[in-house]
Write a structure and sequence with these properties.
- By secondary structure, the chain is α+β, with helices and mostly antiparallel strands.
- It folds into 2 domains: 46 residues, no CATH class; 95 residues, PH-domain like.
- The protein has 3 helices and 9 strands.
- α1 runs antiparallel to α2.
- It is elongated, with a radius of gyration of 19 Å.
- The two termini are 14 Å apart.
- The relative contact order is 0.18.
- The mean pLDDT is 91.
Length: 154
C-alpha cells in the first residue's frame, strides 16, 4: 500500500483567526508608532492569535503501512500512532460542544480544525480514544481500516 494523505483546510479557523490576527497587528503597529504603553498586551495577543492561526489553518492526515499520523497547521501539533497499536477506526460526528481545536473528551482527545466530522481511533492497549477531524471521514476510515487488516494478516 502506498502512502495516503488527506488534508482539510480549517475554514472556520481561518475566518475567525486571520481577521483577529490582522486586527491585533494593526493595533500593535498603531501603539508602536504612537509610543503607547500597551505594546505588551497587543504584542501578547498578536502572538497568541498568530500561533493559533498557524496551528489551526489545516490538518493533514497521513496513512502508511506502519503509521497513522497527523499534523496540524505548520506542524506545531503533530501525533503519530503505530498501526500495530490501533484496534479499529470508524467515522464519527462530534457534538457542537466538542468544538474546534484540541479538546479533552470524556473518553480521549479530539484534534479538529473545522466542522463536526472525524475518525475515531480505538487502541488495543488503552481505553482512551483519539478523534481526528476531517471532511473525508469515510475515505480516511477506510484507508486506516485497510492498513489495520493488512497488519493483522502479517
Amino acid at each position: 500500500m502506498s502512502t495516503k494523505t488527506f488534508t482539510q483546510i480549517g475554514t472556520f479557523s481561518i475566518l475567525i483567526l486571520v481577521p483577529t490576527t490582522l486586527l491585533f497587528t494593526a493595533l500593535f503597529v498603531s501603539e508602536f508608532l504612537n509610543g503607547q504603553s500597551n505594546l505588551i498586551f497587543e504584542g501578547s495577543m498578536l502572538s497568541i492569535f498568530l500561533i493559533c492561526a498557524l496551528t489551526f489553518y489545516r490538518i493533514k492526515i497521513t496513512v502508511t503501512e506502519k503509521y497513522v499520523s497527523f499534523k496540524m497547521g505548520i506542524g506545531l501539533m503533530r501525533k503519530k500512532y503505530a498501526v500495530a497499536e490501533i484496534e479499529s477506526c470508524e467515522p464519527v460526528s462530534n457534538s457542537m460542544a466538542s468544538g474546534i481545536g484540541i479538546r479533552m473528551l470524556s473518553n480521549g482527545w479530539l484534534y479538529n480544525v473545522s466542522g463536526f466530522r472525524a475518525v475515531e481511533l480505538k487502541f488495543k492497549t488503552k481505553k482512551s480514544v483519539v478523534r481526528i477531524g476531517t471532511d473525508r471521514e469515510l475515505e480516511v476510515s477506510a484507508a486506516i481500516q485497510e492498513v489495520i487488516e493488512l497488519h493483522t494478516k502479517k
